[in-house]
Structure formats: structure tokens, C-alpha cells
Amino acid sequence: MNTRRQDQDLDSVARAILAGNDRGGFTIPTAGLYPFQWNWDSALTALGIATYDLDRAWREIETLFLGQWDDGMVPHIVFHLEDPGYFPGPEHWGVDHRPRTSGYSQPPVVASVVRRLLERGANAAAEARAGALVARIDRWHEWFFRYRRDPATGAVTIAHPWESGRDNLPDWDAPMAAVDSSVGDPVRRNDLEHVEAAQRPSQDDYARYMALVGFGRDRNWEPSAIGAESPFRVSDPGMTAILLRAERDLLELADRLALTDRIPAIRSRVGSLERGLEGLWSEEAGAYCSRDLRTGKVAGEVNSATFLAFYAGLGEGPRADRLRHHFDRIADRVRFTVPSYDPAEARFEPRRYWRGPTWIVINRLIAMGLEESGDGQRSERIRRDSAALIGKAGFREYYDPLTGDGCGGDSFSWTAAMWLDWAGRGSDGAPDD
Ligand code: DGY
What we know:
The chain is mostly helical and 433 residues long. It has helices at residues 3-20, 39-49, 54-64, 90-93, 110-120, 124-147, 161-164, 173-177, 203-218, 223-229, 237-256, 263-278, 308-311, 317-331, 360-372, 376-393, 413-423; strands at 37-38, 77-79, 100-101, 157-158, 234-235, 281-282, 287-288, 291-292, 398-399, 406-407. The structure holds (2R)-2,3-dihydroxypropanoic acid.
């Protein structure tokens, strides 16, 4: 079978996965393991849906915002349906909102997705939908600004590893060690019914995740208490880069839709996030690094989110050169870029969730940033590696960067979406020859 034919078959499989995971207005990441609407999964999934049903893609985002809190926060999970198979379900979060939701947020990619949806088909109806979403996104971004900011640098902070979207990244090990693992609800590892334990966070990680869930619940999810007092508070270059990019895209949307009253505040947040990300620069590491707010300690290591600086628009100058140097060093050590954690480090585990595996969504964001910075070569390496992973192992949650074996959940929505939107396309937007 020739490659174009194979790619067309993968297109149909990707669409079938998205249809199979559609629960009516929202798409679950994968059945069993993640049976609800997840924030950034859903937003990035909309990019794939948009390749064949733009109206449904808009709806994906609109449904996510049914979970938005009065204070502007958009939670990481919206429990639209009952499903006792997931832990921790709504009863552990104790959030007073309908539909039920979790209590922490997730990387804010929505503004960037909305900008793309509008670019795919602009008409009066699409502009009205975008305008309504801009107002809601603006409130969410302000929430980060108010409650999740490092006072020293202006970078975005997280109050739970789940907030970063990169749950068990080694960067969080030291700050999580300070969280009392004995105080949370008892852990039920439903995830291990779907994925082998060696590819998931540890039992100890889960005990501490639940301690932080209890911390928020005990404070009635009052955002200033959580932002200022959580036993886990870490500045994250990944979140900072994603929010910075999202603010730039929101600015573009506000400008295009003539929402001029919003522009000064967004512009000022862009400037402050630029300073925030630069404030996380470690000259010693040659990278933007996370910082534990409680101890002031800098992680000093490189992970896939390091390269999101390009996506955030900081792709020039000597700092960018040092990032490219890290990229090449890491790319030489793996067959399939971009591993979620530096393979030169002792804690690298090629199959364990965010401690080594390659994730196609992060690849998409890094490649986009590199391409925009004029680096077509590295960007294309990432795209080809991503297409090869999907061709070899199907639409998995993540992949072993050394062998290309598929790991985690199967029939995964955002991987399917990234195939349709990007990995399965040549630079001309057509399937590969
Ligand atoms: C999970 O359940 O593993 C998610 O990553 C947390 O939202």
C-alpha cells in the first residue's frame, strides 16, 4: 500500500475515534480511562474535528465553558455524565457547580484554538461565537493573573501537578515531597484497570495528588487561599509559555473582532508574561526552568515544555540558540522526538507518562513554534516523527521515544485530532506523498 493510501486510511481511523469518543457536544479523551470532558484535551481535539465539522468544533469549546466558575476559572474536568469508573470523581472534589467539575485548572490553550477555528471559516455566525468566547476566555486568563502568579517573576504558577497537564514530571518531585501524603482521601487506582502500572504515576504520587484535592476542598475552593497557601506552588515555564501564546492569540481575536475595550488589559498581560517567562531563565541550565515558590529552588532540568518558549514567540537571540542546542542533544538520543523529559537524566523513564514518553500534542505545539521562528528543519523532524509513531503504533495516549511502542490509553482523541490537523499533512497541508 502506498503512503498516501495509508494516510487516507489513518484519516478515517482518526475520524472514527473522534466519533466514537463523542458524547454529544463534547469528546472524552478515551473510554474507560478518562470518561468525561477534559479541558485542554477537548480544546486541542476541536482542532481535529474542525477539519471536517467546524460547527461541532465550536460546540466542543462552548460545552467546555458550561463548566466555567463564577470567578472565571475553567476547571480541568467537567463531569457532564455519571461514571463511577473514574477516580477521583465529583464526590471527592466537593465543588458546588452544575455541571459538576474538578477544582483545579489546566493549560489554557483555548484562545489559540478559537483563533484557528475563526481562521478556518470566518462569517457573521462564527464571529458571534468567537466574540462570546473571547469574553469568557478573558475572564479565565484574568483568573490566572490574579491567583496563579509568581510574585517574584510574574510567571504562571500551578497549585496541583494536574494543573500543569504534565502530572508526574520529575520537576514536581521535590515540591511534592513536601506535601503530606497521609491526609488525602484513600486512593482507588481505577486507572490501573486500563493501563499497566509502569506507565502511570505511582501510588505515592496519587496519595499526594489527593492531599492537594483535600486542601482545596477544605478551603471551599477559595482561589486566593489556594494560590497563596497551597503546600504545592511552583512556577511552570510550560504554563507560562502556553498562557503567553494564548494571550497573544486573544489579542489578535479582540483586534479582529473590534473588541477594543479589552485590548489594553490583554496587551499588558502579554508584556507581563513575557517578563515572567524570561524571569524563569536559568543561565546555568541554558533553559527556562520551574521554580518551587516555597523554597525558591530551581529545577534546573530540561523537559519537552522547555521548547514551548518558541510557541510563546521567544524564538530569537542567544537564549533561543541554547534551547536549540538542547533540542539537538535530546533529538540525538531518541528515535522519536520530543521526549517529555531529558533522556540524559537519571529519572528518565521512557514509558512512564510525563517522565519520558513522547506526546503528539506537545509535539504539535513545539513544531508550530519552531516553524514560526523560521526553523522548518527541526519542526519537520518533529512532524515526521509524530506521523511515524502513529503509523507504527496507532492513536495512543503517548509513546516510548526510544522504541516507538504505544503506551497509556488507546483510541485517543487528541492524538487522532493532531493527526488530522497536522501530523498527517505535509507542509502544503496535503497528506504526505
Ligand atoms: C488523570 O486522571 O490521570 C489525569 O491526568 C488527571 O486529570
